[in-house]
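F.,

This is the one I mentioned.
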């Protein structure tokens, strides 16, 4: 048995996964450096350049890998999970799940302790909302493409769905350790929500439900409630919230993702996605199955043949 090449003449899935990880690291470093050079001293401008740039570069790079290494003919986006079919229903479903998980998480804080809000409405704050929405939408998509897109799909092919979920979710959790005020509790919760997002992909064989869930979680928490999102408070541009209570519950300055309140919402989401979301495939998704999500001319047109930043530079918080 050849270590690198399969019987179909393609590079084995495990090597394609490792290569995709190196591609992500390189692109992330490039996006960080470019965003730092364009943004000047503004952290929010940095995020506004960095998140969309990272998303676009990852989609282009992984599309190229699908064409060259996976031999996908035609449009490679469906094979990555960016299918046209069910786009809007899946996004709305994901957003409903994400918003509901946050609502359930903050409920015990509101009932047992205190959840307060202060509105800051001005022309400037409303302009900032547009920037924040762009940051959150593209940031969530960049993370979904990186952690539930091409690398995750090749990892499934290499080691099976269960182990792939565990490994990708662990990586998802560890990259968030660079965020301000991260802790062991926040790591566990982030790994858990990574599992929820991975299962959402496996159930639907598309990135729209996990993206909608991811985006709505951050939007509800950071913009609508004005609370920290993974240790980041800059999204509270109109509503500024405060959550009072013990740190083990509220997560303190990291936010609910670092406390038991977040765990409650994540466990509920795991139950809903794991048992309430109907599977669209009996087997783990692979590049060949992406064709099943296509219809008509789309199916006819697609065949599957089976940096480092400068000193002092800002680094993204996930």
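My design for it:
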């Amino acid at each position: 048995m050849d270590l690198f090449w399969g019987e179909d003449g393609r590079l084995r899935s495990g090597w394609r996964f490792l290569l995709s990880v190196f591609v992500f690291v390189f692109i992330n470093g490039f996006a960080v450096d470019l965003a730092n050079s364009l943004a000047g001293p503004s952290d929010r401008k940095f995020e506004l350049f960095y998140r969309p740039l990272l998303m676009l570069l990852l989609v282009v790079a992984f599309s190229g890998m699908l064409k060259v290494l996976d031999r996908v003919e035609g449009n490679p986006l469906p094979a990555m999970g960016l299918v046209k079919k069910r786009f809007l229903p899946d996004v709305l479903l994901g957003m409903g799940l994400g918003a509901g998980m946050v609502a359930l998480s903050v409920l015990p804080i509101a009932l047992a302790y205190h959840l307060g809000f202060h509105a800051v409405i001005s022309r400037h704050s409303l302009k900032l909302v547009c920037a924040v929405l762009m940051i959150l939408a593209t940031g969530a998509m960049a993370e979904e493409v990186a952690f539930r897109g091409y690398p995750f799909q090749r990892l499934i092919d290499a080691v099976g769905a269960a182990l792939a979920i565990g490994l990708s979710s662990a990586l998802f959790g560890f990259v968030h350790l660079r965020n301000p005020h991260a802790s062991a509790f926040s790591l566990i919760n982030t790994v858990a929500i990574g599992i929820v997002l991975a299962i959402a992909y496996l159930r639907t064989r598309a990135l729209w439900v996990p993206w909608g869930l991811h985006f709505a979680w951050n939007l509800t928490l950071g913009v609508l409630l004005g609370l920290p999102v993974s240790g980041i408070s800059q999204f509270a541009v109109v509503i500024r919230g405060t959550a009072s209570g013990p740190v083990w519950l509220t997560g303190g300055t990291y936010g609910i993702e670092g406390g038991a309140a977040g765990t409650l919402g994540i466990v509920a989401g795991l139950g809903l996605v794991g048992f309430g979301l109907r599977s669209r495939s009996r087997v783990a998704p692979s590049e060949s199955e992406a064709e099943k999500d296509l219809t008509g001319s789309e199916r006819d047109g697609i065949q599957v043949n089976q940096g480092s930043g400068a000193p002092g530079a800002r680094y993204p918080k996930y």
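The beta strands are 72-73, 114-119, 239-244, 303-304.

Talk soon.
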